[in-house]
Design a protein that fits this description.
The protein is about 20% helix and about 40% strand. By secondary structure, it is an alpha+beta fold. The protein has one domain: Clam (outer membrane lipoprotein receptor (LolB), chain A), CATH 2.50.20. Strand 7 and strand 8 form a beta hairpin. The longest helix has 21 residues. It holds the Pfam family DUF3261.
């Protein structure tokens, strides 16, 4: 093999590696304005993250107003593990997390937005971004450049967020009163 062919093969190999890196880069949807989400008191939820054969069950305490959204993730025993904050600085996890989540703050903030915000706020945020929202009686479909990224179904008491792109399913169930933290509105698998 001549030196020219070796150089050409090396250039092609580097080019392919760079292209594959671009293809696997995570694309995040723009977040809607916090002011478009009606304020609510803190509510406790049962969160189930499912990915392939892994299943993680946590409690979540969600609170939001016109300027900030906070989701504290707790162990089933009530120990704070991680806190997501979304405000004018953007989504982030607060320091002091007890574990390294397999997802980013932006990923979790997007899934919450797709589930919580009214459709007009999402449509406004998605405008001119390649992201779209389709909504019907069965739920919501989130697409990026005509590729389905997620499907959100259920009710306000039991939301199921199927993240098609990353292979995650997030089930969010509103819990009953504090005396029964295991009773939720979602059916068990």
């Amino acid at each position: 093999m001549t030196l020219v062919r070796i150089v050409i093969h090396c250039v092609l190999a580097v080019w392919l590696v760079l292209l594959s890196g671009c293809a696997t880069r995570t694309v995040h949807a723009p977040l809607p304005e916090l002011s478009d989400l009606p304020a609510t008191d803190a509510r406790t939820q049962h969160l189930t993250f499912i990915n392939q054969d892994e299943r993680h069950e946590l409690l979540g305490v969600l609170r939001h107003d016109q300027s900030e959204l906070q989701l504290a993730l707790l162990s089933p025993q009530g120990q704070r593990l991680l806190t997501l904050v979304v405000d004018v600085q953007g989504p982030r996890f607060l320091p002091g997390a007890q574990f390294e989540p397999p997802f980013t703050a932006k990923w979790l903030a997007n899934r919450l937005a797709w589930s919580l915000w009214p459709a007009p706020a999402l449509e406004q945020a998605f405008r001119d971004s390649g992201w779209t929202l389709r909504e019907n009686v069965n739920g919501r479909i989130i697409q990026y450049r005509d590729r389905m990224m997620a499907r959100i179904t259920g009710s306000s008491d039991c939301r199921i967020i199927d993240d098609i792109e990353s292979g995650y399913r997030l089930r969010v169930a509103t819990l009953g009163d504090d005396s029964n933290r295991t009773e939720s509105a979602c059916p068990t698998d």
